[in-house]
TrEMBL record:
Cross-referenced PANTHER family: METALLOPROTEASE TLDD, PROTEASOME SUBUNIT BETA TYPE-1
Catalysed reaction, written as an equation: Cleavage of peptide bonds with very broad specificity
Protein name, entry field: Proteasome subunit beta
Family label: Belongs to the peptidase T1B family.
Complex formation: The 20S proteasome core is composed of 14 alpha and 14 beta subunits that assemble into four stacked heptameric rings, resulting in a barrel-shaped structure. The two inner rings, each composed of seven catalytic beta subunits, are sandwiched by two outer rings, each composed of seven alpha subunits. The catalytic chamber with the active sites is on the inside of the barrel. Has a gated structure, the ends of the cylinder being occluded by the N-termini of the alpha-subunits. Is capped at one or both ends by the proteasome regulatory ATPase, PAN.
HAMAP family: Proteasome_B_A
Length: 202
């Protein structure tokens, strides 16, 4: 399986999840955009982050939002992160012969406000993690993330850790760059924070 362009990082704390993605859209070495969002809320307490092909990402987000709305109408409550990850796993596996080229982080809070974080590959393999870094810059980001993560990390330190991990990846990965979007999920809901980086003169 080829390395998918971009970098996405996720961490969970005691009562929150932070998912971050850089903003560059590239294909075959060409930069197509510097203002792409790769993290998306699906419900008020659950969201996703992606590395991979942007067309596949948009398709998956539309399907997940539809499935989450159908679940809420049928059961009268939000789908939890594990349920959403399982829905996505089935979707990705159904395309196993012509895979959707994306790696996905699913994170959020369940009905008891317990945080969880899941990783899925292009054919739907599902793993639960405490922290994760994916995409072409994922290995570099993980090298910074792993020694600096603590289970009792505060939300401010988690946001800084995710942002700094992506910055480290951006310095070494041409497919990543230009800024970071953070999806921060707490009991109060979600918020998206955007950080743009100054472009160095060529």
């Amino acid at each position: 399986m080829e390395v998918l362009p971009g970098t996405v990082v996720g961490v969970k704390g005691r009562d929150f999840v932070v998912i971050g993605g850089e903003k560059r859209l590239s294909y075959n070495g060409f930069i197509l955009s510097r203002m792409v969002r790769k993290v998306y809320p699906i419900t008020d307490h659950c969201g996703v982050g992606f590395a991979g092909l942007f067309g596949d990402i948009n398709y998956i987000v539309r399907i997940l939002k539809l499935e989450a709305r159908n679940y809420a109408l049928e059961f009268g409550r939000e789908i939890n992160p594990k349920g959403l990850a399982k829905v996505l796993s089935v979707l990705l596996y159904s395309y196993k012969f012509i895979p959707l080229l994306t790696e996905v982080v699913v994170g959020g809070l369940d009905r008891d406000w317990k945080p969880s974080l899941y990783v899925l590959d292009p054919v739907g393999s599902l793993i639960e993690e405490k922290y994760v870094a994916l995409g072409s810059g994922g290995r570099v980001a993980l090298g910074y993330l792993e020694p600096n993560y603590r289970e009792d990390i505060s939300i401010d330190n988690a946001k800084k850790l995710v942002t700094d991990s992506i910055k480290v990846a951006i310095e070494r990965d041409v497919a990543s760059g230009d800024g970071v979007d953070l999806l921060v999920i707490t009991r109060d809901g979600y918020r998206i924070e955007e950080y743009l980086f100054e472009r160095k003169p060529s």
